[in-house]
Hints:
The complex is a heterodimer.
Chain A: H1 2-5, E1 8-11, E2 25-28, H2 34-42, E3 59-61, E4 82-87, E5 94-100, H3 102-115, H4 125-151, H5 159-177, H6 184-203, H7 208-228, E6 238-240, H8 252-278, H9 281-288, H10 294-299, H11 304-330, E7 332-334, H12 340-353, H13 358-374, H14 380-396, H15 404-423, H16 432-437, H17 441-460, H18 463-471, H19 479-489, E8 497-503, E9 507-512, E10 522-523, H20 532-549
Antiparallel strand pairs in A: 1-2, 3-5, 4-5, 6-7, 8-9, 9-10
Helix pairs in contact in A: 4-8, 4-11, 4-12, 4-13, 5-6, 5-7, 5-11, 6-11, 8-11, 9-11, 12-13, 12-14
Chain B: H1 3-31, H2 38-55, H3 60-83, H4 92-115, E1 130-133, E2 136-139, H5 140-162, H6 164-174, H7 176-181, H8 186-208, H9 220-233, H10 238-258, H11 264-278, H12 284-287
Antiparallel strand pairs in B: 1-2
Helix pairs in contact in B: 1-5, 1-6, 1-8, 1-9, 1-10, 2-3, 2-4, 2-8, 2-9, 3-4, 3-8, 5-6, 5-8, 6-8, 9-10, 9-11, 10-11
Amino acid sequence: MSDANMIARWRNPLFLWGAKREVDELPTIAFRSHQDIWNETRESKAELLPVGRLRYYYKWPGHGTATWNRLRYWPSRRRVLRVRGEYNPKTLRREKTITDKRPIWWLLGLIALALGPLFTPLGIQNTLLTAASTFAIYAAISLCWMLIIGTAGIYSLASYAVVGTAAFCSASLSVKFGVPWWLLPPLGAVVGLVFGGIIALPASRLDGFYYALLTLGLNELCRVYFTTSPVFGAANGGLFGAATFIPEAASQLVRLLTSYYACFALLLATLLFYRQVNGRRVGRILRMAPEKREAFAEATGVNFRRARVQVFVLSSTALGFIGGFYAANFGGVAFSIFNFDTVLLGLGMLVIGGIGKAEGAVVGTLIVVLFDKFFITLGPIRLVLIGLIMLLASLYLRDGLFGIKAQFRNWRDKKKSERRSTRAEKGGEMLPEEATDAHDKNEVYRRRFDKMQREYFKTIVSPELIEEHRRAPQGQHSEVLERLLIYFRGQPQVDKYAITAVEPFKAYRIVGLSGHRGVPPRVVEDKIYTTPEEAYHAVFLRRVQDLLES
Amino acid sequence: MDIWFVISNAIVLACIYGTLAIGVSITWSSLGLLNLAYGFIFAFAGYGAWLVSQHVSDWGPVLLAAGILIGALGGVLVCAIAFIPIHDKPNYTIRGLIATLAINLLGTQGLLWWFGPRSKTLPEIFGGWKISLSGMVLTADKVGNVLTSILMLIVVLRWMQSSRRGLEIRAMMMNPHAASIVGIGVRRTSFYVMAITGGLAGLAAVLLSQTYYISPFGGLTPMIKGVSIALCGGLGSVRGAVIAAIVLGLNESITTFAIGGQYVLITQFLFIIAILLVRPRGIAGILDKAREA
C-alpha cells in the first residue's frame, strides 16, 4: 500500500524555525475525511441477500359489513376458517388472510371421494370400487387408532385385534342366531367396549414400549385363538355368511356402489368422532400433557391418566363398531385381519401420514391401500414397496408426510442461521450474550469503537511511517503518525508499555505497567537500550506489532 | 400325553426363546432400540443356513456356524439401516421401532418373493440317537438344542463379562450418555451389539429348524415369544430374561398338561399381564435397574 498511497506530501511547519532533526517534507498517505472512514467502517460487508419471506398467502380484500360476517359451525360460535385480519402497512387497506386452509382441502378431498365412483373408467371399476371401500373402512380404523396413539399417546398395537374380535363375535352371532345386519355394528361396539376396558387396565400402568409389546402379543394371541377355535370356522380361512346390507339380487355395480357409499358414510362418521374427541375437552387435556411433560400437567391439576383411558375406551368402542360394520359389509371376516402384516400395514398407514393428524391417517391409508389393493397384480413386491416407503418415512421424516412442511422450515432456518453466523465478524467486540452480562453498557460501545479504530490504523501502518518514527521519536510528526501515537497514548494503563531508566542517560529498559497502584511493572524484555530515543522507538514497534496482531 | 415329554419340550423351547429374549434385552438396554426386525433376522439366518446346507456342506457344526454368522450379518444390516441414521434424531425410539418393523415387513416379503412360499427343512444337526432316563426319552435334537443354546449363552455372557468389547457394551447398558463421554463410540459398539444379538437369533433359527420348518414368516412366533419373555423379565436385564424364560416355560408345560395346548398363549399372556400389573418393569424390577425408556 505504501507506494500507491504516498502521493501526498506532508510539509513540516516547524522546519522554517530550524529546529534540530526536523525535515522539510515527508511522503504521507492522502488525506481522507474521517466521515468517509466512519461511513466505510459502518458499512456492512455482508453480501446483501434477499431477506425475509415471500408473501405467498393470498390476501383477500374485506372491510365494512363483511368484516365480522364469518362462517361458523351452527349453533356454536366456532369458525370454519381461521381468518386473520390486518391492515396492509403500505396501502393501509384492510386485508384478510386465511391462516389455516385445511378445512378447504378436507372439503375438496371429501367431495372428490364422494363423486369419484361416478367417474371411474369401466375397465378397472371393480378393482377400484373394492379398493375404495376397503380404503374407507381402513381409514376409519386408522382414525380411531390415531386417537389412541396420537391423542392418548398409548402405543397400542391391538387395534386390529379389537376390530377382528368384534367382527368375529358379531358375525358368529349373526350366523348362529340370525341377528339382522343393523344390529351387528352396535353388537361390535359392545364387544369393543368390553375388550377395550380389559386392555385399558394395564395401559395406565405400563410404559409406552412395554405396552406396545404386550399388545403385539395380544394380537398374536387373538390370531391363534380365532384360527384354532372350532367355533369360528377354522376350516375355510374365516367366518362368512353373516347378514349383510348389500342387496343380493342387484347387479354387481349397484352392490359395489352400496358398499362404497356405506363405507364412505362410516368414514365421515369416524371423522366426526375424531373431531369430537380430539378437538374437545379430552383432546385439549391430553394436548396439555404430552410425553415427558406429564408431571407439569399433573401439577396443574389435569387428570391426564383418566383422559387417556377415556380416549382409549371410546376409541376401542368405535373400533368395535367398525368391526361389526366390517362383518356386515363383507358378510363375514377373514383370519387375515389378525395377521402381523395387517398390523404392520396399519401402523405404516399412520406413520407415512404422520402421527397425531387426521389427514395423516386418511392420506397414509390411501397410499397403503393403493399399493396393497390396487396394484394387487405385483405380488409380494407391493408389500416390499410399502415397507420401503415406511422405512424411508421413519428414517427421514420426523412426523410423516404432513410434517414435511414444518421439518423443511426448521431445516431452512437452521441453514439460514448457519450462513448468517459464517458472515458475521468479530474482533474484540462483545458477543450478544456477553453484552447482556456486561455491567457497564458503555463498554459494549467502547469496544465496538475501538475495533473500528484498530481496523483503520491497521491500514495506515507502513515502512515509511516506521522509518519516520525511528528518525525522530519525539518532536513534530506527520499528521498520520501523530494520530497513531495519540491512539497508542490513549490506551488503558493495564499492560501499557513504558520505559524505565536502569541508569540515567546510559541504560533504559521496556516494562509493562501493571495498572494497579502498588503493583510494580513487569519486565517485558531483557534488552538494554542506550538512549531514550532507541527505547521510545522500541516501544513504538511493540505497540505496532500488537496492533497488527489484534 | 407324557408329563416328562411335556417338561422336556418346555425346557427346550425355554432355552431357545430365552436366547432370543436375551438378544432383545441386550439390544434394548444398550442401544435403546426395540428391534422388531428379529423375525426377519431369524428367517434370514434360517434361509442362509439352508443355502449353506444345499451348496456347501450339511455337517451339523458348519450349519450352526453358518446360522450364527448369517444372523450376525443380518443384525449388522439392521443396525446400519435402522440404527445408524436415526440414533441421534428426535423421536428416536418410536422411529427406530417403526423402522425395524418396516425392515421386518420388507425383509420377510422379500424372502417370500425370492424363495417362494414353500418352507424348507434343514438336515438333522445332532444325529438321530436317543437316550432313556428312567422313563424319560431324550432325543438327540432336544439334548443338542439345550446344550448348544446354554453353551452359546455362557460364551456370550462370559465374553461380555471379561472382554474389552463386553465392558464397552455393559457400560452402554448402564448409561449410554456417560459411556459416550468416556470415549465408547456409540456407532461402533452398536455394530458389536447387533452382530451378537443377530448371532443369537441365527443360532435360535438353526436350532428351532430341528422342530419347525424354515419359512419367511416363521420368525414371527419366536420373536413374539422372545419379546414377551424379555418384557416379562424386564427389558434390559439378562438375569430377568433367564428367570422369565424358565417361568414361562414351566407355565407352558403345566398349561399343556393340565388344560390343553391351545390355551398356552392365553395363560401366558394372563401371566405376563399379572406380572406387569404388579411390576410394571418386569421381574428385573426386583433384581436390577432397567434402562429408563
